[in-house]
Design goal:
Blueprint: E1 2-3, H1 4-10, H2 16-24, E2 28-30, E3 33-34, E4 41-42, E5 49-51, E6 54-55, E7 63-68, E8 97-98, E9 107-113, H3 116-123, E10 131-138, H4 143-151, E11 154-155, E12 158-159, E13 164-170, E14 174-181, H5 188-195, E15 200-208, E16 211-212, E17 221-223, H6 226-237
Parallel strand pairs: 9-15
Antiparallel strand pairs: 1-4, 2-3, 2-5, 5-6, 7-9, 7-17, 8-9, 10-14, 10-15, 11-12, 13-14, 15-16
Helix pairs in contact: 1-2
């Protein structure tokens, strides 16, 4: 027997947190009866589970590493008709969801999966999954600015956690810097750099945990290898 929200997440319908919201909203039925109590135990082999009238079935799990281009929305749809990450996965036979977000003007690595439990753990703060970014910033940050970025910057939603920061290349009026963080706040790197007086002109996420861009170009993706999936699950489920 498993908790209902876990079964929904493992079926790729939604993350566990979203599954809890679906249950609380009365959108889930078990054997024809609406269930709103979180923690309800179900038997996948015997119980018929429905979300919004759709029968939940366990499906094979698929996880892809995607290089999101700039000017692409990290969403499955957009009311304004802009291109979304879903446009790049039309040939994949399962519905995939982005793990976390990259803003519209940021490019780089994004994980796409139908494994709700995996996605939930990747995004959970307690696992502190590192993300590495290359940022082209206006001006050349001095040691004081780099130190502020590393120690934590006061933003409107609180002080950022310590980060690893280094200068990759300094030009006359701009510089490439690398920031390694484990938080996932909205537009965090851009806001951090803005706060120390060096607005971001270009931003690339080059690494998620041990996963790197490799030879991927914008718009390309690849399935994670068996070894990569094993390593990822050891990090998150051990």
């Amino acid at each position: 027997m498993e908790r209902l929200q876990k079964v929904i997440a493992q079926a790729g319908i939604a993350s566990r947190r979203k599954a809890e919201q679906l249950i609380s909203a009365g959108r889930v039925r078990v054997n024809g009866q609406t269930v709103t109590e979180l923690g309800t135990k179900v038997d996948e082999a015997r119980d018929v589970i429905e979300v919004d009238g759709r029968v939940v079935k366990a499906e094979d799990k698929h996880t892809y590493l995607f290089y999101k281009p700039k000017k692409v929305i990290t969403s499955l749809s957009d009311p304004r008709g802009r291109k979304t990450v879903a446009n790049y996965f039309r040939d994949v036979p399962v519905r995939l969801y982005p793990v976390g977000r990259l803003d519209y003007d940021t490019e780089g690595l994004l994980l796409m999966t139908n494994d709700g439990e995996l996605a939930n753990r990747l995004m959970h703060p307690r696992f502190e999954i590192e993300k590495s970014y290359l940022a082209l910033v206006q001006g050349v940050p001095n040691e004081s600015a780099l130190s502020r970025l590393a120690k934590g910057v006061a933003l409107e939603d609180g002080v950022t956690a310590p980060a690893r920061v280094s200068t990759v290349r300094a030009m006359s009026k701009t510089a490439w810097i690398r920031l390694v963080i484990h938080e996932g706040r909205n537009r965090q790197v851009r806001r951090m750099c803005e706060a120390v007086g060096h607005p971001v002109k270009k931003l690339i996420r080059e690494r998620i945990g041990f996963l790197r861009t490799g030879g991927l170009k914008p718009g390309q993706y690849r399935a994670l290898t068996v070894d990569e999936m094993k390593k990822l699950k050891e990090m998150l489920f051990s």
